[in-house]
Design brief:
By secondary structure, the protein is α+β, with helices and mostly antiparallel strands. The chain has helices at about 15-20, 30-40, 50-55, 60-75, 80-115, 165-170, and strands at about 120-125, 125-130, 140-145, 155, 160-165, 175-180, 195, 200-209. Strands 2-1-3-8-5-6 form a 6-stranded antiparallel beta sheet, with no helix packed on it. A two-stranded antiparallel sheet has the order 4-7. α3 (about 50-55) crosses α5 (about 80-115) and α4 packs antiparallel against α5 (about 80-115).
């Protein structure tokens, strides 16, 4: 079997060796170690489009460009100042209205996301604790039950009647049964029965991973 220093994808390495490689155990990380790893972790943060960029985007549609060209023609070639100014005012009003609507919608979504916090159950220092999803670090041991979201790509340590919905990854509508057996490195995504992936969720059963 592989050793702690062995290379290879996590589904093809013995669980004990994988725990050693990650510097953890079935009792989970210590609170101190987890805090240190969290400081070094690269976390994804949603980036909001700037106001200037969003405003400029309102004037990039074909209709807006056509209106602008019409206004320029009216002001230059036809010398119809009245119609040209009217078209420019319509163009400006439409762009500002679209900007205001999109900016308000983005504000509402940001506030809604700020009110919702997804949490997961981890084992730290041998004790079950609940933490926000973005505080999970490499080496954490997660406890999973029906309805739980998978907090990151991970490897099963224990499993009992575990079925996971992986439709977002494989397109398969039926839940996939999961087991703890070690698999060959060349195993395809849909056949990695000992692995769980971010973005999927538990349908039934219990597990640690």
């Amino acid at each position: 079997m592989s050793n702690p220093g062995a290379e290879g994808p996590f589904w093809s390495v013995d669980a004990a060796d994988l725990l050693a490689r990650l510097g953890t155990s079935e009792q989970g990380l210590s609170v101190t170690t987890a805090a240190e790893r969290l400081k070094l972790a690269q976390r994804l943060r949603p980036r909001r489009q700037s106001a200037v960029s969003l405003l400029l985007d309102q004037f990039k549609s074909p209709i807006m460009i056509l209106l602008f060209c019409s206004a320029v023609l009216s002001l230059t070639l036809i010398e119809d100042v009245t119609n040209g100014v009217i078209i420019l005012l319509i163009l400006l009003a439409s762009g500002l209205l679209g900007f205001w609507q999109e900016w308000s919608a983005a504000d509402a979504v940001a506030k809604l996301l700020g009110m919702i916090e997804t949490r997961t159950t981890l084992i730290r220092d041998g004790v079950d604790v609940e933490v926000p999803l973005d505080e999970v670090v490499a080496g954490d041991v997660v406890r999973l039950r029906a309805g739980d979201l998978i907090p990151g790509d991970c490897r099963l340590l224990t499993s009992r009647d575990l079925y996971v919905n992986e439709a977002v990854l494989t397109g398969e509508s039926f839940p996939a049964e999961k087991t703890v057996a070690v698999l060959p490195a060349a195993t395809s995504l849909g056949q990695r029965t000992n692995s769980l992936y971010l973005g999927t969720h538990v349908v039934s059963g219990m597990a640690t991973a």
